[in-house]
UniProtKB/TrEMBL annotation:
Protein name as it appears in the record: HTH cro/C1-type domain-containing protein
Pfam families (alphabetical): HTH_3
Cytoplasm keyword on record: no
Keywords linked to the UniProt accession: DNA-binding
Source organism (scientific name): Rummeliibacillus stabekisii
The HTH cro/C1-type domain, residue ranges: 6-60
Secreted in keyword set: no
MF-aspect GO terms: DNA binding
Listed SUPFAM superfamilies: lambda repressor-like DNA-binding domains
Coiled coil region boundaries: none
């Protein structure tokens, strides 16, 4: 399996066996033995190959269909969400699915334009919302005097400023893209 995966990765990058051998610091014949299943690389060479192609060692060895650990974790997270959705009330499930769908459309639009400059700002907005949600569940939030308007305004201002800054970055990226 390793030999097949290695050959596919090499060809997808339009590299020759000599290119790979040079990158790994071995002879072309030594590299060819990997692709012909006559030899296997040592761990350090395997790590070099995985790093070069930005894939996991498990992927190289055919132990997973996911090229990176991030992909595998992402799919596990999606499976977990799917399981939770199946136990929810229809109204709640619809809200969550619509939210995920909106986020998917937003990300997909950025990827289709091959412009990921806004994704960092979108991430920051979501992170701020998530952080605020986590904060409201902690004991320290109970220390905030909810009847004190100034405390509420200060707390709100902190997150609004951060979200507004991220939104400003999206607008700035939009104008920069138009002018180029």
């Amino acid at each position: 399996m390793f030999a097949q995966v290695l050959k596919i990765l090499r060809k997808n990058k339009n590299l020759t066996q000599s290119d790979m051998a040079n990158m790994l610091g071995i002879t072309r014949q030594g590299y060819a033995k990997y692709e012909n299943e006559e030899s296997q690389p040592d761990f350090n060479t395997l790590k070099k190959i995985a790093d070069y192609f930005d894939v996991s060692i498990d992927y190289l060895l055919g132990r997973t269909a996911f090229k990176t650990n991030d992909e595998e974790i992402f799919m596990e997270d999606i499976s977990e969400i799917f399981e939770k959705l199946s136990t929810m009330k229809k109204k709640d499930r619809k809200t969550i699915v619509n939210t995920i769908d909106a986020l998917y459309l937003l990300i997909n639009r950025q990827l289709n334009k091959q412009d990921t400059s806004n994704l960092k700002a979108i991430h920051d907005i979501i992170y701020d919302l998530m952080h605020f949600d986590n904060l409201t569940k902690k004991d320290e939030f109970k220390l905030v005097n909810l009847s004190n308007t100034i405390d509420l305004i200060d707390l709100s201002r902190t997150y609004k400023e951060s979200i507004n800054s991220s939104m400003d970055q999206i607008i700035k990226n939009k104008f920069q893209n138009r002018s180029s």
